[in-house]
Amino acid sequence: MLQKNARASLAFSLVELLMVIAIIGILAALLLPSLTESKRKAQQIACASNLRQLGVGLRVFVENYKFYPTISAPTNNHLPGGTWLAQLERGGLEVANPVPYYYQQGIWRCPSGQLREGPIKMQPYYGYNGYGILPIGNHYTNFGLAGHLEAESTLFTPILESEVASPAEMIALGESDEPIYMRNQTHDFDHSILRHQDRANVLFCDGHVESPTLKFLFADTSDAALVRWNRDHLPHREKLLP
Predict the structure, then answer these.
(1) What share of the chain in percent tops pLDDT 90?
(2) Cα 126 from Cα 113, distance rounded (Å)
(3) Phi-psi region of 233 (alpha: psi -120 to 50; beta: other; left: phi over 0)
(4) What residues of the chain score a pLDDT lower than 70?
(5) What is the distance between the alpha carbons of residues 181 and 172, in angstroms, rounded to a whole number?
(6) pTM to 2 decimals?
(7) Which of 56, 59, 110, 143 lies at 20 to 30 Å from 33 by C-alpha?
(8) pLDDT tens digit string along 109-157?
(9) Burial code of 188-200, b = ≥16 C-beta within 10 A, e = fewer?
């Protein structure tokens, strides 16, 4: 009888169990935001690391060829690929035989980006600053890295290294659900699904990475914000849409 009472005194009552569960629930609720924030920060850091490695590849490409990848090129051209993606993978990262969908894997993939399904199935996670300040791309008159294209021609002439006035102040790549990175937030992020809250990682032509606010990237019309899109380091405010 005494043993039975002793066992009963050591057991939890229903009220005590409910209290323990409630305390665990409160602690979990308090910790969850911190865990979510830590995961978000880790993903942003991983994304920036990816861009730094792509930046190394871009610098290798420019050192080897003395110009920047073009937006596209014929396969029989002297460039190491038909798109800027292939040119950077082959000529910058020096991968002779890229695997299928290489631009959605490894350092090409932002860990916060949505899976490549539906309308963005074939798209990369980072885009190339092809047109500069222009909110809508223009193959013939642009301020980005796409290349020079003469009328009635299908061959882009590459942008020479010397044509980029301030490599440390010009965006080369940025987070995007499109292969071309534009000063147009709706264009860059499918269905406006952002990755790092109010910031985006961008790679500059000299290889360094920054995480400016979306407002600074896409809405700010100061000279400091606009010149970063253009290879001549001028704001070209006259080209902004009214």
Answers:
(1) 70
(2) 10
(3) left
(4) 1-12, 28, 31-36, 152
(5) 9
(6) 0.85
(7) 110
(8) 999 999 999 999 999 999 999 999 987 777 888 999 999 987 767 788 9
(9) bbbeeeebbeebb
For residue 167, give the nearest of 232, 226, 104, 78 by alpha carbon.
232
What secondary structure, in 3-state letters, does the chain show? CHHHHHHHHHCCCHHHHHHHHHHHHHHHHHHHHHHHHHHHHHHHHHHHHHHHHHHHHHHHHHHHHCECCCCECCCCCCCCCCEHHHHHHHHHCCCCCCCCCHHHCHHHCCCCCCCCCHHHCCCCCEEECCCCCCCCCCCCCCCCCCCECCCCCCCCECCEHHHCCCHHHCEEEEECCCCECCCCHHHHCHHHCCCECCECCEEECCCCEECCEHHHHHCCCCHHHHHHHCCCCCCCHHHCCC
Task: Work out whether the CA dihedral 54, 94, 165, 168 comes out positive or negative.
Answer: positive
Spatial strand order of the sheet with 202-204 comes to 126-128, 171-175, 202-204, 209-210
Residues making up the chain, counted from first to last: 242
Cα–Cα dist 102/83, whole Å:
13
